[in-house]
């Protein structure tokens, strides 16, 4: 690391070399950016770019006060896109349609009520929708919606899917998402036209707008579904 | 939007309001940052912060030359942590162990060879490892390693898992990752101690270091596994 000016990739490579060689051990603080810039003979911004990249990759941990340390447990990160179902089907080059199977006010199951932090006895709108790709079952959506937190009047969910309506009509939201695998129940296998016990890829989301619970949804995907991204 | 200086959250809320109200329609370019800053009576950096947040949320699309547009298909993004298996088990408060089931040079199946871009007939190191949490099967790892691209000598993979060794000994990598659900084959059900056909959460990764293919791995998780994150 001497001679002509370095690009940030070269700085990144040298920092990684030191980490791999345990010159800088897991958990150890590394020199500050100004010192590294002086040592490497480059701009501090170049060091910063390299360290940010390594932090994004989970190799370094950056804390406001404690400075930058070598990660004890390197964690790679992957970013997933979560599109609306219609866009997801269309991106596969298939034609999208959906059928509303059920729409009624009902008492949600306890896990749903707890997840959304609702008072006991709160009734929600229960929607079940089958989404189709080229006319074949693509996913079964089982959704609980909190009408009290939604703009009124609600649309006809047989004409616009709740998924799509929420994205375009409810303010910026936060929430959580979980992915798992489940054997299809008899009821879900029948809806999706699958043998009993077929392995389903399941996505569960709960969504808030400001501090208001909006919706909890379970998406059960027909076989062949893969969630794919670059790392 | 007038009166005292605005925080970036207020700018974000106003931008979102205009998008929801279709004052700014999907696909349409929005005014530039300088004009918005003048209109809102705030610093341009404040506008920038708000727009970046909305772009990260998939509501806006920012292109270097085309400027900032309202997304045609809003895409939420989620970031996943991909820790090494030992750290994942320990984070659950369980004790980690593993057993190397198989280690031999072999011809990979065609899909693996294609995925890694290997010449036909290339032999790879085939490792199969059972990872345990509190002594119970946690996941079955089926891995193909390209020894030509690895630092030598290779370690004893019965003493350190390939997963952990790669993270600490192979330079910064890129690759892809996919998640799906599969019914356990009879062989995999036996390894994991599960009934035949149990739904397994499957993670598949392929990894490169610079332009060299390093490894392709399939992780089949025992039931109860959930990949969870905030959105």
TrEMBL record, chains A, B:
Cross-referenced SMART domains: HTH_GNTR, UTRA
Identify a single GO molecular function assigned to this protein.
DNA binding
Question: Matching SUPFAM superfamilies, A to Z?
Answer: Chorismate lyase-like (SSF64288), Winged helix' DNA-binding domain (SSF46785)
Which PROSITE patterns has this protein been placed in?
A: HTH_GNTR
Please, which domain of life does this record's source organism belong to?
Bacteria
**Which positions fall inside the HTH gntR-type domain?**
5-73
Pfam families the record matches:
GntR (PF00392), UTRA (PF07702)
| Keyword terms, alphabetized | DNA-binding, Transcription, Transcription regulation
Lyase as UniProt keyword: no
- Enumerate the CDD domains for this protein: WHTH_GntR
Tell me yes or no: is Transcription among this UniProt entry's keywords: yes
Q: Which PANTHER family match?
A: MANNOSYL-D-GLYCERATE TRANSPORT/METABOLISM SYSTEM REPRESSOR MNGR-RELATED, TRANSCRIPTIONAL REGULATOR PHNF-RELATED
This chain belongs to the protein called Transcriptional regulator, GntR family
**Organism ancestry:** Bacteria, Pseudomonadati, Pseudomonadota, Alphaproteobacteria, Rhodobacterales
């Amino acid at each position: 690391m001497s001679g002509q000016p370095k690009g940030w990739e070269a700085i990144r490579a040298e920092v990684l070399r030191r980490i791999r060689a345990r010159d800088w051990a897991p958990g150890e603080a590394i020199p500050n950016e100004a010192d590294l810039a002086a040592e490497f003979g480059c701009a501090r911004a170049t060091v910063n770019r390299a360290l940010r990249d390594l932090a994004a990759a989970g190799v370094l941990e950056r804390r406001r006060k404690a400075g930058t340390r070598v990660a004890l447990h390197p964690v790679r990160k992957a970013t997933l896109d979560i599109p609306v179902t219609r866009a997801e089907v269309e991106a596969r080059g298939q034609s999208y349609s959906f059928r509303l199977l059920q729409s009624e006010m009902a008492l949600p199951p306890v896990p749903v009520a707890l997840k959304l932090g609702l008072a006991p006895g709160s009734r929600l709108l229960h929607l079940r929708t089958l989404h189709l790709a080229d006319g074949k079952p693509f996913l079964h959506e089982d959704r609980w919606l909190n009408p009290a937190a939604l703009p009124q009047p609600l649309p006809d969910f047989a004409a616009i899917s709740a998924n799509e309506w929420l994205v375009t009509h409810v303010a910026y939201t936060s929430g959580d998402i979980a992915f798992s695998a489940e054997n299809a129940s008899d009821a879900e296998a029948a809806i999706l036209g699958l043998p009993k016990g077929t392995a389903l890829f399941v996505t569960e989301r709960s969504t808030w707008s400001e501090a208001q619970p909006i919706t909890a949804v379970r998406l059960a995907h027909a076989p062949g579904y893969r969630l794919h991204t670059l790392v």
